[in-house]
Design a protein that fits this description.
The complex is a heterodimer of chains A (346) and B (273).
Chain A lengths: L2 E4 L2 H9 L3 E8 L2 E6 L27 E7 L11 E6 L1 H14 L7 H7 L2 E6 L25 E6 L2 E6 L2 H9 L5 E2 L2 H21 L9 H7 L5 H6 L7 H5 L6 E7 L4 E7 L20 H20 L9 H5 L6 H18 L1
Parallel strand pairs in A: 2-5, 5-6, 6-7
Antiparallel strand pairs in A: 1-8, 1-9, 2-3, 4-11, 7-8, 10-11
Helix pairs in contact in A: 6-9, 6-11
Chain B lengths: L8 E12 L2 E8 L10 E6 L3 E5 L11 E6 L3 H7 L6 E8 L5 H4 L3 E7 L3 H13 L6 E8 L8 H4 L9 E7 L9 E2 L16 E6 L2 H13 L7 E4 L15 E2 L2 E2 L6 E3 H4 L8
Parallel strand pairs in B: 7-8, 7-11, 8-9, 9-10, 11-12
Antiparallel strand pairs in B: 1-2, 1-6, 2-5, 3-4, 3-6, 12-15, 13-14
The chains are: A alpha/beta (346), B alpha/beta (273).
């Protein structure tokens, strides 16, 4: 892969912004969210040390959108190319997960796809992981290997920029004058940074190590009382599912407009009590503990069975956002311990 | 441009049939012919109000119109019950996998139904009747709360009785008037020798509680879990296996069902709720 050097982040983002709208991380309190980049300096070119608090799914699967207008259909608005800067390995993985769902077989979602095909992904290495980051528990890394158009690594004197796709390579070639060669010392520095961040992250998560595969632990814990116990701390705010970069449940509802009717597609949450309720009143998950279990089963068991990958990237956003201070890593450790104890006794 | 799976096809309600005190059938004529396989379902939109999933109760061989039998149960079905003929509606679909009718050929087909669950069964029966010679026998055991609560009365008490190779027995939870048939829930008329289990498939559709006990009875009679076909009622919304409301374990009822074998779903929690 092609890797080059640039001293200023601003020069890179300005070059991208000449071609398309760019969304970039911006500080909010002690965290980051995305804002539209402006070259005048109102929204600065800042590299986020760790993933943003808002999920990347917002760019592809917005919280609320019009899914249909009828009786006469209207063609959807044409999506213009856009770039998102500051994505991390977990964000790229979350997009790969959503791709599986929204591009599945004959069941394509045209709204997701129209945005996905116009998205230019600029990722970056994590250099200061949070306490809630846990991608390393799920085969994640502090830097991406694939799934990006460009990846940015911070080094002492500037940034290394690597192309990860044809579009990324074309961008580097078109903007050759901005970049210098990446000396081997710079690459070595990047690799050291990565190793250090990776170790830092592994240390953070050392106490969440599981004895067995997470899918086996969750599946074999179907009858565990732990789900009901942890559910007592849940206030059903649903933030875990909304802020999750891979949760993609939604509901459709009908609206009336002046001369037409609309069908809206809005984020929904399996934590909500009536989520699975049918008109006759039956509800397979009316107990909160069953919904807690379903969420973990979907993430670690059902999705894996269907698509061959976990539906969790270990970004830790759900832990940050939980009003009930539930940490799914603790839940997994409790389930793990419970299984070990049962095995030990028998 | 990819087709929009959320876009309804415009249709009109042209006829409304009162089936029972709480159930009506709606004849719906779509703007263009609409194909479906028996057991597949549609999302019916009442414009501006909402959408709900229904399995058409008519024969798939008719594509210029379809019948949808609807029990008044929730908000959308309540509003649909107030509709008059001429009402524009929307249709999305067909969705999911229906009954594997070809796999039933040469076998005895044992159909257990209750209440509005006779709606998908009517579509299946019309399909089977069209090629009745392909099946060894078709044996139906249907239940309703009272004689008035049976839907499709003209067929149940008339035309279907005349069909050779089709055996129908009815039961009611509570008799009244001149009911001379069985009284009791549908499981009371499921007998071990109704069909030759070694060469039979069972189809069950009805209220969840009835499906549960009918399935247990069939298992008790010796039916293999992979020979019992269940029409699962779940909260199907998007209809294309994405929105998550209708999940039964790893399955999406809308895409992988709504017809499942008991074997497929037996190990998942609360399937009857």
């Amino acid at each position: 892969m092609e890797t080059v050097f640039i001293s200023q982040l601003k020069a890179l983002l300005d070059a991208v912004a000449q071609q398309m709208v760019v969304f970039t991380p911006t500080e909010v309190g002690d965290s980051f969210t995305y804002a539209r980049y402006t070259h005048d300096g109102e929204v600065k070119a800042v590299l986020n040390p760790v993933r943003t608090c808002s999920p990347a799914k917002e760019f592809l699967f917005p919280m609320r959108e019009i899914a249909a207008v009828f009786p006469e259909a209207i063609s959807p608005e044409e999506v213009q190319p856009f770039a998102v800067f500051g994505l991390k390995d977990c964000d790229l993985k979350s997009i790969q997960i959503l791709d599986r769902v929204f591009y599945e077989e004959e069941f394509h979602d045209p709204f997701y796809i129209s945005r996905r095909e116009k998205m230019f992904l600029i990722s970056s290495d994590c250099y200061d992981p949070k306490d809630t980051c846990c991608c390393t528990l799920f085969e994640g890394r502090v830097f991406p290997l694939k799934g990006f158009d460009l990846n940015v690594s911070k080094i002492k004197d500037g940034y290394l920029v690597e192309a990860g796709s044809t579009e990324g390579k074309m961008f580097l070639h078109r903007n050759e004058r901005l970049f210098a060669d990446a000396p081997s010392a710079a690459r070595a520095e990047r690799d050291r940074n990565r190793q250090q961040a990776q170790q830092q992250l592994e240390q953070i998560n050392a106490r969440y190590k599981l004895d067995r595969k997470v899918e086996e632990i969750v599946l074999e814990s179907q009858d565990s009382p732990v789900f009901d116990q942890v559910a007592t701390g849940c206030v059903e705010c649903q933030s875990c599912t909304r802020i999750c970069p891979t949760c993609h449940c939604f509901y459709l509802f009908d609206t009336q407009r002046e001369n037409a009717f609309g069908k809206m597609k809005v984020w929904d949450s399996c934590v909500r009590q009536d989520f699975a309720r049918v008109a006759g009143g039956e509800n397979p998950r009316k107990i909160l503990g069953d919904r807690t279990k379903h969420r973990l089963m979907h993430k670690f068991v059902y999705f894996l069975e269907r698509y061959g990958i976990h539906m969790c990237v270990g970004c830790g956003r759900c832990v940050d956002s939980c009003a009930g201070e539930m940490d799914f890593r603790d839940v997994l450790v409790r389930l793990n311990r419970e299984l070990v104890n049962i095995k030990g006794r028998s | 441009m990819i087709a929009n799976p959320y876009q309804p096809l415009t249709a009109t309600i042209t006829e409304i049939i009162d089936e029972s005190p709480t159930i009506k059938s709606f004849v719906v004529v779509p703007r263009q012919p609409f194909k479906f396989a028996t057991g597949q379902f549609i999302e019916l939109t009442l414009p501006g109000q909402g959408e709900a999933p229904f399995t058409p109760s008519s024969s798939p061989s008719v594509t210029e119109k379809m019948e949808v039998t609807i029990m008044k149960a929730g908000r959308v079905t309540g509003l649909l019950h107030e509709c008059q003929t001429g009402q524009p509606v929307g249709i999305r679909g067909p969705m999911g996998k229906g009954y594997p009718v070809d796999d039933f050929a040469g076998k005895q087909v044992y159909i257990v139904g209750g209440g509005v669950g006779l709606a998908p069964i009517r579509s299946l029966l019309l399909t089977l009747i069209d090629r009745i010679g392909d099946f060894e026998r078709v044996v139906c055991r249907f239940g309703a709360r009272s004689p008035e609560d049976f839907i499709y009365k003209p067929a149940l008490f008339g035309s279907w009785k005349q069909i050779q190779g089709l055996d129908i027995t009815l039961t009611v939870d509570k008799a009244n008037g001149n009911w001379s048939g069985n009284v009791g829930v549908v499981t009371t008329i499921l007998k071990r020798d109704d069909v030759d289990i070694s060469n039979a498939v069972a189809v069950v559709c009805g209220p969840p509680i009835m499906m549960k006990f009918a399935t247990l009875k069939l298992l008790d009679h010796g039916f293999a879990p992979n020979r019992i076909y269940l029409s699962m009622e779940k909260n199907m919304s998007c209809g294309i296996g994405k929105c998550g409301h209708c999940m039964i374990g790893k399955y999406y009822a809308c895409k992988d069902g709504p017809v499942f074998t008991f074997e497929q779903i037996q190990n998942y929690p609360n399937i009857w709720e």
